[in-house]
Design goal:
It is a single chain. By secondary structure, the protein is α+β, with helices and mostly antiparallel strands. 70% of the residues lie in helices and 14% in strands. It has a 3-stranded antiparallel sheet with strand order 1-3-2. A hairpin with a 2-residue loop joins β2 and β3. The protein is elongated. The N and C termini lie far apart (46 Å).
Length: 103
């Protein structure tokens, strides 16, 4: 799981994934949306592609990138027990506050 988190640790890569949530994007579209240089976007896309978070296809002279959900599902599965832990604590806090309010 560490390589996935290493990949997702970078804010620019997370922003790229955010833009790809809405559908495929070309490198030039991502450059404009992110206001980051083309070489920097390409570097981040390479890291995301190598980690399996995005796929690429060629259309004429453009490279079109799309989100690949499988690595994100793996991250989601890893995070599930932690979400449950937070939910349990928040439920306990809610009960405590309700009890305090009724007292």
């Amino acid at each position: 799981m560490e390589p996935a988190f290493d990949t997702l640790a970078d804010p620019t890569r997370r922003r790229i994934l955010d833009h790809l949530r809405d559908g495929e994007r070309s490198v030039s579209e991502l450059v404009v949306a992110l206001a980051v240089s083309q070489p920097a976007v390409s570097k981040h896309l390479r890291v995301l592609r190598e980690a399996g978070f995005v796929s690429v296809r060629v259309s004429a002279q453009q490279r079109i990138y799309a989100l690949d959900m499988e690595p994100l599902r793996a991250v989601d599965e890893w995070l599930a027990p932690y979400r449950q832990l937070w939910a349990t604590h928040l439920d306990a806090l809610e009960r405590y506050l309700d009890d305090k309010e009724q007292s």
